[in-house]
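Section 5: illustrative case.
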Protein backbone atom coordinates (compact mmCIF):
# COMPACT_ATOMS: atom_id res chain seq x y z
CA UNK A 1 0.00 0.00 0.00
CA UNK A 2 1.40 3.42 -0.93
CA UNK A 3 1.70 6.02 1.80
CA UNK A 4 -1.04 8.60 2.12
CA UNK A 5 0.21 12.17 2.43
CA UNK A 6 -2.48 14.58 3.54
CA UNK A 7 -1.95 18.32 3.43
CA UNK A 8 -4.26 20.78 5.14
CA UNK A 9 -3.79 24.26 6.48
CA UNK A 10 -4.22 23.57 10.19
CA UNK A 11 -2.74 20.45 11.73
CA UNK A 12 -3.05 19.88 15.46
CA UNK A 13 -0.83 17.20 17.00
CA UNK A 14 -3.06 15.41 19.55
CA UNK A 15 -2.22 15.88 23.21
CA UNK A 16 -3.72 13.83 26.05
CA UNK A 17 -6.65 15.49 27.78
CA UNK A 18 -6.95 18.29 25.19
CA UNK A 19 -10.02 18.24 22.91
CA UNK A 20 -9.21 18.66 19.20
CA UNK A 21 -10.03 22.13 17.87
CA UNK A 22 -13.55 22.35 16.40
CA UNK A 23 -13.85 22.12 12.61
CA UNK A 24 -15.13 19.44 10.26
CA UNK A 25 -11.98 19.09 8.17
CA UNK A 26 -9.71 17.90 10.97
CA UNK A 27 -12.24 15.33 12.18
CA UNK A 28 -12.64 13.89 8.66
CA UNK A 29 -8.96 13.86 7.79
CA UNK A 30 -7.93 12.09 10.98
CA UNK A 31 -10.31 9.27 10.12
CA UNK A 32 -8.66 8.88 6.69
CA UNK A 33 -5.56 7.48 8.40
CA UNK A 34 -7.47 4.81 10.28
CA UNK A 35 -6.39 1.88 8.11
CA UNK A 36 -3.42 3.38 6.30
CA UNK A 37 -0.13 4.84 7.46
CA UNK A 38 0.92 8.25 6.33
CA UNK A 39 1.98 11.83 6.83
CA UNK A 40 -0.22 14.77 7.76
CA UNK A 41 1.45 18.03 6.81
CA UNK A 42 0.36 21.59 7.56
CA UNK A 43 0.56 24.66 9.74
CA UNK A 44 1.20 24.12 13.47
CA UNK A 45 -1.09 27.01 14.42
CA UNK A 46 2.01 28.86 15.75
CA UNK A 47 3.76 32.02 14.59
CA UNK A 48 7.57 32.06 14.23
CA UNK A 49 9.52 34.71 12.32
CA UNK A 50 12.76 32.72 12.07
CA UNK A 51 12.94 31.56 8.42
CA UNK A 52 15.38 28.74 9.23
CA UNK A 53 13.13 26.82 11.62
CA UNK A 54 12.62 23.29 10.29
CA UNK A 55 9.20 21.57 10.43
CA UNK A 56 8.50 19.59 13.61
CA UNK A 57 7.87 15.86 13.26
CA UNK A 58 5.77 13.87 15.76
CA UNK A 59 4.48 10.28 15.60
CA UNK A 60 1.02 9.48 17.01
CA UNK A 61 -0.59 6.10 16.29
CA UNK A 62 0.09 5.45 12.59
CA UNK A 63 0.25 9.14 11.64
CA UNK A 64 3.45 11.11 11.18
CA UNK A 65 2.55 14.72 11.88
CA UNK A 66 4.84 17.21 10.11
CA UNK A 67 4.00 20.75 11.11
CA UNK A 68 5.50 24.07 10.18
CA UNK A 69 5.09 27.50 11.76
CA UNK A 70 4.08 30.61 9.81
CA UNK A 71 5.83 33.99 9.90
CA UNK A 72 3.70 36.95 11.02
CA UNK A 73 3.33 38.34 7.48
CA UNK A 74 2.38 34.90 6.12
CA UNK A 75 -0.22 34.42 8.85
CA UNK A 76 -1.74 37.84 8.17
CA UNK A 77 -1.72 37.75 4.36
CA UNK A 78 -2.36 34.09 3.68
CA UNK A 79 -4.58 32.98 6.59
CA UNK A 80 -6.27 36.12 7.96
CA UNK A 81 -6.07 37.71 4.50
CA UNK A 82 -6.76 36.00 1.18
CA UNK A 83 -7.94 32.60 2.52
CA UNK A 84 -10.34 33.90 5.15
CA UNK A 85 -11.28 37.37 3.87
CA UNK A 86 -11.67 36.55 0.18
CA UNK A 87 -12.06 32.84 -0.50
CA UNK A 88 -14.07 31.94 2.63
CA UNK A 89 -16.72 34.69 2.29
CA UNK A 90 -17.08 34.48 -1.49
CA UNK A 91 -17.26 30.69 -1.59
CA UNK A 92 -19.96 31.04 1.10
CA UNK A 93 -21.89 33.46 -1.20
CA UNK A 94 -20.91 36.51 0.91
CA UNK A 95 -19.26 38.82 -1.60
CA UNK A 96 -20.43 41.69 0.63
CA UNK A 97 -18.00 40.57 3.37
CA UNK A 98 -14.94 40.07 1.15
CA UNK A 99 -11.87 42.32 1.47
CA UNK A 100 -9.25 41.87 -1.23
CA UNK A 101 -5.70 43.19 -1.37
CA UNK A 102 -2.91 42.33 -3.79
CA UNK A 103 -0.45 41.81 -0.94
CA UNK A 104 -2.79 39.23 0.62
CA UNK A 105 -2.99 37.35 -2.69
CA UNK A 106 0.83 37.43 -2.95
CA UNK A 107 1.04 36.09 0.60
CA UNK A 108 -1.41 33.30 -0.27
CA UNK A 109 0.62 32.25 -3.30
CA UNK A 110 3.90 32.60 -1.36
CA UNK A 111 2.75 30.34 1.48
CA UNK A 112 1.59 27.70 -1.00
CA UNK A 113 5.14 27.78 -2.43
CA UNK A 114 6.62 27.55 1.09
CA UNK A 115 4.41 24.57 1.91
CA UNK A 116 5.60 22.85 -1.29
CA UNK A 117 9.26 23.55 -0.41
CA UNK A 118 8.92 22.16 3.08
CA UNK A 119 6.79 19.17 2.10
CA UNK A 120 9.07 18.17 -0.81
CA UNK A 121 11.80 16.74 1.42
CA UNK A 122 9.31 14.27 2.95
CA UNK A 123 7.80 12.98 -0.31
CA UNK A 124 8.48 9.62 -1.96
CA UNK A 125 7.60 8.92 -5.63
CA UNK A 126 4.82 6.42 -4.88
CA UNK A 127 3.05 8.52 -2.22
CA UNK A 128 -0.57 9.43 -2.86
CA UNK A 129 -1.03 13.12 -2.04
CA UNK A 130 -4.40 14.47 -0.93
CA UNK A 131 -4.70 18.24 -0.42
CA UNK A 132 -7.61 19.70 1.57
CA UNK A 133 -9.50 22.94 1.35
CA UNK A 134 -9.41 26.48 0.04
CA UNK A 135 -6.17 27.55 1.72
CA UNK A 136 -4.12 25.30 -0.55
CA UNK A 137 -5.67 25.41 -4.02
CA UNK A 138 -2.37 26.35 -5.79
CA UNK A 139 -0.34 23.67 -3.96
CA UNK A 140 -0.54 21.17 -6.85
CA UNK A 141 1.01 23.64 -9.29
CA UNK A 142 3.81 24.30 -6.79
CA UNK A 143 4.45 20.58 -6.28
CA UNK A 144 4.37 19.83 -10.01
CA UNK A 145 6.84 22.64 -10.67
CA UNK A 146 9.20 20.94 -8.20
CA UNK A 147 9.02 17.75 -10.25
CA UNK A 148 6.53 15.66 -8.21
CA UNK A 149 4.50 13.39 -10.50
CA UNK A 150 2.53 11.66 -7.71
CA UNK A 151 -1.24 11.12 -7.85
CA UNK A 152 -2.58 14.42 -6.51
CA UNK A 153 -6.13 14.88 -5.28
CA UNK A 154 -7.90 17.93 -3.87
CA UNK A 155 -11.06 18.09 -1.78
CA UNK A 156 -13.00 21.30 -1.20
CA UNK A 157 -14.74 21.09 2.19
CA UNK A 158 -16.67 24.33 1.68
CA UNK A 159 -19.30 25.30 -0.92
CA UNK A 160 -18.51 26.19 -4.52
CA UNK A 161 -20.89 28.94 -5.69
CA UNK A 162 -22.01 29.65 -9.27
CA UNK A 163 -19.53 31.18 -11.75
CA UNK A 164 -20.89 34.74 -11.41
CA UNK A 165 -19.77 34.69 -7.78
CA UNK A 166 -16.46 32.93 -8.50
CA UNK A 167 -15.61 35.63 -11.03
CA UNK A 168 -15.87 38.28 -8.29
CA UNK A 169 -12.64 36.89 -6.79
CA UNK A 170 -10.03 39.31 -8.07
CA UNK A 171 -7.44 37.56 -10.26
CA UNK A 172 -9.33 34.30 -9.78
CA UNK A 173 -7.25 32.65 -12.52
CA UNK A 174 -4.30 32.64 -10.07
CA UNK A 175 -6.20 30.75 -7.40
CA UNK A 176 -9.20 28.78 -8.74
CA UNK A 177 -7.75 28.65 -12.24
CA UNK A 178 -4.78 26.47 -11.30
CA UNK A 179 -6.74 23.44 -10.16
CA UNK A 180 -5.89 21.50 -13.34
CA UNK A 181 -2.58 20.48 -11.79
CA UNK A 182 -4.60 18.02 -9.69
CA UNK A 183 -5.66 14.60 -11.02
CA UNK A 184 -8.94 14.66 -9.10
CA UNK A 185 -11.00 17.45 -7.53
CA UNK A 186 -13.73 16.49 -5.07
CA UNK A 187 -16.78 18.50 -3.97
CA UNK A 188 -19.35 17.98 -1.23
CA UNK A 189 -22.47 18.07 -3.45
CA UNK A 190 -23.45 17.78 -7.12
CA UNK A 191 -24.46 21.44 -6.99
CA UNK A 192 -20.92 22.46 -5.97
CA UNK A 193 -19.38 20.25 -8.65
CA UNK A 194 -21.72 21.55 -11.35
CA UNK A 195 -20.99 25.15 -10.40
CA UNK A 196 -17.28 24.52 -10.79
CA UNK A 197 -17.83 22.72 -14.11
CA UNK A 198 -19.69 25.77 -15.45
CA UNK A 199 -16.88 28.03 -14.26
CA UNK A 200 -14.42 25.80 -16.14
CA UNK A 201 -16.46 25.92 -19.33
CA UNK A 202 -16.64 29.70 -19.24
CA UNK A 203 -12.90 29.80 -18.57
CA UNK A 204 -12.22 27.84 -21.77
CA UNK A 205 -11.51 24.36 -20.39
CA UNK A 206 -12.47 21.44 -22.60
CA UNK A 207 -15.06 19.32 -20.76
CA UNK A 208 -15.08 15.53 -21.14
CA UNK A 209 -18.10 13.78 -22.66
CA UNK A 210 -19.15 12.50 -19.23
CA UNK A 211 -19.09 15.96 -17.62
CA UNK A 212 -16.84 14.45 -14.94
CA UNK A 213 -13.49 15.49 -16.37
CA UNK A 214 -11.82 18.30 -18.26
CA UNK A 215 -8.70 19.09 -20.17
CA UNK A 216 -6.75 22.26 -19.67
CA UNK A 217 -3.25 23.19 -20.85
CA UNK A 218 -2.55 19.57 -21.79
CA UNK A 219 -3.59 18.05 -18.46
CA UNK A 220 -6.66 15.95 -17.71
CA UNK A 221 -8.46 16.38 -14.40
CA UNK A 222 -11.40 14.42 -13.07
CA UNK A 223 -14.09 16.15 -10.96
CA UNK A 224 -16.56 14.38 -8.69
CA UNK A 225 -18.93 14.53 -5.73
CA UNK A 226 -17.84 12.92 -2.46
CA UNK A 227 -20.12 13.97 0.44
CA UNK A 228 -18.04 13.77 3.60
CA UNK A 229 -19.32 11.51 6.38
CA UNK A 230 -18.58 10.79 10.03
CA UNK A 231 -17.52 7.72 12.03
CA UNK A 232 -21.19 6.87 12.40
CA UNK A 233 -21.06 3.63 14.42
CA UNK A 234 -18.35 4.92 16.79
CA UNK A 235 -20.21 8.17 17.30
CA UNK A 236 -23.43 6.33 18.12
CA UNK A 237 -21.57 4.19 20.68
CA UNK A 238 -19.96 7.28 22.25
CA UNK A 239 -23.35 8.94 22.59
CA UNK A 240 -24.90 5.92 24.24
CA UNK A 241 -22.01 5.74 26.66
CA UNK A 242 -22.07 9.49 27.34
CA UNK A 243 -25.75 9.34 28.27
CA UNK A 244 -24.69 7.78 31.60
CA UNK A 245 -21.91 10.24 32.46
CA UNK A 246 -21.90 12.61 35.46
CA UNK A 247 -21.70 15.51 33.02
CA UNK A 248 -24.95 14.49 31.36
CA UNK A 249 -26.68 13.79 34.67
CA UNK A 250 -25.87 17.32 35.84
CA UNK A 251 -27.07 18.84 32.58
CA UNK A 252 -30.29 16.82 32.68
CA UNK A 253 -30.96 17.85 36.28
CA UNK A 254 -30.31 21.49 35.45
CA UNK A 255 -33.13 21.40 32.89
CA UNK A 256 -35.71 20.43 35.52
CA UNK A 257 -37.84 18.62 32.94
CA UNK A 258 -37.62 21.34 30.27
CA UNK A 259 -36.99 20.39 26.63
CA UNK A 260 -33.57 21.09 25.17
CA UNK A 261 -32.69 22.68 21.82
CA UNK A 262 -29.03 22.54 20.87
CA UNK A 263 -26.84 24.47 18.42
CA UNK A 264 -23.13 23.65 18.04
CA UNK A 265 -21.03 25.72 15.65
CA UNK A 266 -17.79 27.65 15.40
CA UNK A 267 -18.54 31.35 15.82
CA UNK A 268 -18.76 32.00 12.09
CA UNK A 269 -21.12 34.22 10.09
CA UNK A 270 -21.79 31.32 7.69
CA UNK A 271 -23.53 29.41 10.49
CA UNK A 272 -26.59 31.67 10.72
CA UNK A 273 -26.46 32.02 14.50
CA UNK A 274 -28.07 35.47 14.52
CA UNK A 275 -30.92 34.25 12.29
CA UNK A 276 -31.38 31.22 14.55
CA UNK A 277 -31.65 33.29 17.71
CA UNK A 278 -34.08 35.65 16.00
CA UNK A 279 -36.21 32.63 15.13
CA UNK A 280 -36.08 31.39 18.74
CA UNK A 281 -37.09 34.87 19.85
CA UNK A 282 -40.04 34.75 17.45
CA UNK A 283 -40.98 31.30 18.72
CA UNK A 284 -41.07 32.52 22.34
CA UNK A 285 -42.93 35.64 21.28
CA UNK A 286 -45.66 33.83 19.37
CA UNK A 287 -45.88 30.67 21.51
CA UNK A 288 -46.07 31.97 25.08
CA UNK A 289 -47.13 28.50 26.31
CA UNK A 290 -43.65 27.26 25.56
CA UNK A 291 -41.90 29.90 27.66
CA UNK A 292 -40.12 28.35 30.62
CA UNK A 293 -40.56 24.90 29.04
CA UNK A 294 -37.61 24.93 26.67
CA UNK A 295 -33.93 25.82 26.94
CA UNK A 296 -31.75 26.64 23.93
CA UNK A 297 -28.11 25.66 24.49
CA UNK A 298 -25.82 27.29 21.92
CA UNK A 299 -22.20 26.06 22.11
CA UNK A 300 -20.01 28.28 19.99
CA UNK A 301 -16.22 28.36 20.33
CA UNK A 302 -14.60 31.51 18.97
CA UNK A 303 -12.99 31.18 15.57
CA UNK A 304 -10.68 33.43 13.47
CA UNK A 305 -11.11 36.11 16.10
CA UNK A 306 -8.63 38.59 14.55
CA UNK A 307 -10.74 38.98 11.42
CA UNK A 308 -13.02 42.03 11.78
CA UNK A 309 -16.14 40.40 10.29
CA UNK A 310 -15.91 37.65 12.94
CA UNK A 311 -15.61 40.21 15.76
CA UNK A 312 -18.65 42.11 14.42
CA UNK A 313 -20.69 38.96 14.29
CA UNK A 314 -19.62 37.86 17.78
CA UNK A 315 -20.76 41.21 19.21
CA UNK A 316 -24.10 40.93 17.38
CA UNK A 317 -24.69 37.50 18.93
CA UNK A 318 -23.74 38.73 22.42
CA UNK A 319 -26.21 41.56 22.14
CA UNK A 320 -29.02 39.40 20.83
CA UNK A 321 -28.56 36.67 23.46
CA UNK A 322 -28.63 39.32 26.20
CA UNK A 323 -31.71 40.91 24.68
CA UNK A 324 -33.70 37.64 24.43
CA UNK A 325 -32.66 36.47 27.90
CA UNK A 326 -33.50 39.88 29.33
CA UNK A 327 -36.96 39.97 27.78
CA UNK A 328 -38.17 36.44 28.51
CA UNK A 329 -35.91 35.18 31.30
CA UNK A 330 -37.05 34.53 34.82
CA UNK A 331 -35.19 34.08 38.09
CA UNK A 332 -35.24 30.31 37.59
CA UNK A 333 -35.10 30.13 33.76
CA UNK A 334 -32.58 31.45 31.24
CA UNK A 335 -33.96 30.87 27.72
CA UNK A 336 -30.57 30.80 25.94
CA UNK A 337 -27.45 29.29 27.49
CA UNK A 338 -24.61 30.65 25.39
CA UNK A 339 -21.13 29.15 25.73
CA UNK A 340 -17.94 30.16 23.91
CA UNK A 341 -15.70 27.13 24.35
CA UNK A 342 -15.20 23.71 22.82
CA UNK A 343 -16.44 20.53 24.49
CA UNK A 344 -14.96 17.04 24.27
CA UNK A 345 -16.46 14.71 21.69
CA UNK A 346 -18.17 12.44 24.26
CA UNK A 347 -19.78 15.33 26.13
CA UNK A 348 -21.08 16.79 22.86
CA UNK A 349 -22.42 13.40 21.78
CA UNK A 350 -24.26 13.13 25.10
CA UNK A 351 -25.72 16.63 24.71
CA UNK A 352 -26.96 15.73 21.23
CA UNK A 353 -28.64 12.60 22.56
CA UNK A 354 -30.42 14.56 25.27
CA UNK A 355 -31.64 17.35 22.99
CA UNK A 356 -35.20 17.25 21.68
CA UNK A 357 -34.04 19.11 18.56
CA UNK A 358 -30.84 20.35 16.97
CA UNK A 359 -30.87 23.70 15.22
CA UNK A 360 -28.44 23.31 12.34
CA UNK A 361 -29.34 26.34 10.29
CA UNK A 362 -26.30 27.71 8.41
CA UNK A 363 -26.81 30.34 5.74
CA UNK A 364 -24.38 28.24 3.68
CA UNK A 365 -22.28 25.23 4.59
CA UNK A 366 -20.19 22.79 2.58
CA UNK A 367 -21.59 19.78 4.45
CA UNK A 368 -22.10 20.41 8.20
CA UNK A 369 -20.94 17.44 10.22
CA UNK A 370 -22.85 18.56 13.31
CA UNK A 371 -26.07 17.58 11.50
CA UNK A 372 -24.75 14.04 10.96
CA UNK A 373 -23.35 13.78 14.49
CA UNK A 374 -26.73 14.75 15.92
CA UNK A 375 -28.45 11.97 13.95
CA UNK A 376 -25.79 9.41 14.95
CA UNK A 377 -26.15 10.33 18.63
CA UNK A 378 -29.90 9.68 18.92
CA UNK A 379 -31.62 6.88 20.78
CA UNK A 380 -33.37 5.10 17.88
CA UNK A 381 -36.36 4.32 20.11
CA UNK A 382 -36.92 7.94 21.14
CA UNK A 383 -34.96 10.19 18.80
CA UNK A 384 -34.85 13.96 18.62
CA UNK A 385 -35.62 16.07 15.56
CA UNK A 386 -33.06 17.62 13.23
CA UNK A 387 -33.98 21.11 12.03
CA UNK A 388 -31.71 21.61 9.04
CA UNK A 389 -31.04 24.48 6.66
CA UNK A 390 -31.71 23.81 3.00
CA UNK A 391 -28.34 25.52 2.38
CA UNK A 392 -26.21 22.95 4.22
CA UNK A 393 -24.63 20.28 2.00
CA UNK A 394 -26.05 17.72 4.44
CA UNK A 395 -29.61 18.58 3.31
CA UNK A 396 -28.97 16.65 0.08
CA UNK A 397 -28.60 13.45 2.13
CA UNK A 398 -30.73 13.94 5.26
CA UNK A 399 -34.24 13.77 3.89
CA UNK A 400 -35.76 12.96 7.26
CA UNK A 401 -34.85 16.38 8.68
CA UNK A 402 -37.24 19.30 9.03
CA UNK A 403 -35.75 21.37 6.22
CA UNK A 404 -35.92 25.14 6.75
CA UNK A 405 -34.89 28.33 5.01
CA UNK A 406 -32.78 30.22 7.59
CA UNK A 407 -33.83 33.52 6.03
CA UNK A 408 -37.45 32.92 7.05
CA UNK A 409 -37.82 33.62 10.76
CA UNK A 410 -41.44 32.47 10.93
CA UNK A 411 -40.70 29.21 9.11
CA UNK A 412 -37.88 28.38 11.51
CA UNK A 413 -40.02 29.23 14.54
CA UNK A 414 -42.77 27.00 13.16
CA UNK A 415 -40.27 24.14 12.75
CA UNK A 416 -39.29 24.54 16.42
CA UNK A 417 -42.89 24.03 17.46
CA UNK A 418 -43.35 21.12 15.04
CA UNK A 419 -40.25 19.45 16.49
CA UNK A 420 -41.52 19.76 20.06
CA UNK A 421 -44.92 18.31 19.14
CA UNK A 422 -43.81 15.61 16.72
CA UNK A 423 -45.20 12.17 17.66
CA UNK A 424 -42.66 9.50 18.53
CA UNK A 425 -43.55 7.33 15.50
CA UNK A 426 -42.80 10.13 13.09
CA UNK A 427 -39.56 10.95 14.91
CA UNK A 428 -38.54 7.31 14.68
CA UNK A 429 -39.28 6.96 10.98
CA UNK A 430 -37.51 10.22 10.10
CA UNK A 431 -34.52 9.21 12.18
CA UNK A 432 -34.33 5.72 10.65
CA UNK A 433 -34.09 7.15 7.13
CA UNK A 434 -31.35 9.55 8.16
CA UNK A 435 -29.38 7.01 10.16
CA UNK A 436 -29.40 4.63 7.22
CA UNK A 437 -27.95 7.37 5.00
CA UNK A 438 -25.11 8.26 7.37
CA UNK A 439 -24.33 4.61 8.16
CA UNK A 440 -24.00 3.83 4.46
CA UNK A 441 -21.99 6.93 3.60
CA UNK A 442 -19.70 7.04 6.62
CA UNK A 443 -16.20 8.47 6.75
CA UNK A 444 -14.55 5.25 5.62
CA UNK A 445 -16.78 5.20 2.54
CA UNK A 446 -15.80 8.79 1.78
CA UNK A 447 -12.07 8.05 2.03
CA UNK A 448 -12.33 4.85 -0.03
CA UNK A 449 -14.37 6.34 -2.84
CA UNK A 450 -12.16 9.42 -3.11
CA UNK A 451 -8.89 7.49 -3.09
CA UNK A 452 -10.20 4.84 -5.52
CA UNK A 453 -11.33 7.56 -7.87
CA UNK A 454 -7.90 9.20 -7.61
CA UNK A 455 -6.23 5.91 -8.52
CA UNK A 456 -8.65 5.46 -11.44
CA UNK A 457 -7.94 8.94 -12.75
CA UNK A 458 -4.32 7.93 -13.35
CA UNK A 459 -5.24 4.86 -15.44
CA UNK A 460 -4.98 4.93 -19.26
CA UNK A 461 -8.66 4.14 -20.20
CA UNK A 462 -9.80 7.22 -18.31
CA UNK A 463 -7.16 9.36 -19.99
CA UNK A 464 -8.15 8.00 -23.41
CA UNK A 465 -11.81 8.88 -22.92
CA UNK A 466 -11.24 12.60 -23.01
CA UNK A 467 -8.53 12.88 -25.63
P1 LIG B 1 -17.10 23.54 10.28
O1 LIG B 1 -16.19 22.55 9.63
O2 LIG B 1 -17.48 24.68 9.40
O3 LIG B 1 -16.63 24.01 11.60
P2 LIG B 1 -18.86 21.21 10.68
O4 LIG B 1 -20.21 21.15 11.29
O5 LIG B 1 -18.72 20.50 9.40
O6 LIG B 1 -18.48 22.77 10.56
O7 LIG B 1 -17.80 20.58 11.66
C1 LIG B 1 -17.62 21.05 12.95
C2 LIG B 1 -16.92 19.97 13.76
O8 LIG B 1 -16.37 20.59 14.92
C3 LIG B 1 -17.88 18.90 14.22
O9 LIG B 1 -17.23 17.66 14.27
C4 LIG B 1 -18.28 19.38 15.62
O10 LIG B 1 -18.62 18.36 16.51
C5 LIG B 1 -17.01 20.07 16.07
N1 LIG B 1 -17.37 21.19 16.95
C6 LIG B 1 -18.09 22.26 16.66
N2 LIG B 1 -18.30 23.03 17.75
C7 LIG B 1 -17.68 22.40 18.74
C8 LIG B 1 -17.54 22.65 20.14
N3 LIG B 1 -18.09 23.71 20.73
N4 LIG B 1 -16.83 21.79 20.86
C9 LIG B 1 -16.28 20.71 20.28
N5 LIG B 1 -16.40 20.40 18.98
C10 LIG B 1 -17.08 21.23 18.23
C1 LIG C 1 -13.79 24.67 8.39
C2 LIG C 1 -12.83 24.71 7.23
C3 LIG C 1 -11.48 24.11 7.62
C4 LIG C 1 -10.97 24.80 8.88
C5 LIG C 1 -12.01 24.75 9.99
C6 LIG C 1 -11.58 25.51 11.25
O1 LIG C 1 -14.00 23.32 8.70
O2 LIG C 1 -13.36 23.99 6.11
O3 LIG C 1 -10.54 24.26 6.59
O4 LIG C 1 -9.78 24.19 9.33
O5 LIG C 1 -13.21 25.31 9.51
O6 LIG C 1 -11.17 26.80 10.93
P1 LIG C 1 -9.72 27.38 11.27
O7 LIG C 1 -9.60 28.66 10.52
O8 LIG C 1 -9.71 27.54 12.76
O9 LIG C 1 -8.71 26.35 10.86
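Designed sequence:
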Amino acid sequence: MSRLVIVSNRVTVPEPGKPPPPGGLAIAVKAAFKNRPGIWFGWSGKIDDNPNTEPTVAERDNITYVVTDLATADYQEYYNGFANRVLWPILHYRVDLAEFSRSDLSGYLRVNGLFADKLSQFLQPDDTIWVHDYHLIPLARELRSRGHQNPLGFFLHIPCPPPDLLFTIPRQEQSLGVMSHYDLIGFQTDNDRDNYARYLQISGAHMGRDGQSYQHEGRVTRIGTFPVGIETAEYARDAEHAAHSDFLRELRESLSGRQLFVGVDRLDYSKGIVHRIEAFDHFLETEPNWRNRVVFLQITPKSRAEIPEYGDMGRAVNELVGDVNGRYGEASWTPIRYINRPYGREDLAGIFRLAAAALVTPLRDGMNLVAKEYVAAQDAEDPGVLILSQFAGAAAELEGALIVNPHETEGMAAAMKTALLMPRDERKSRHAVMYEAIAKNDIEHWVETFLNSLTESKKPPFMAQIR
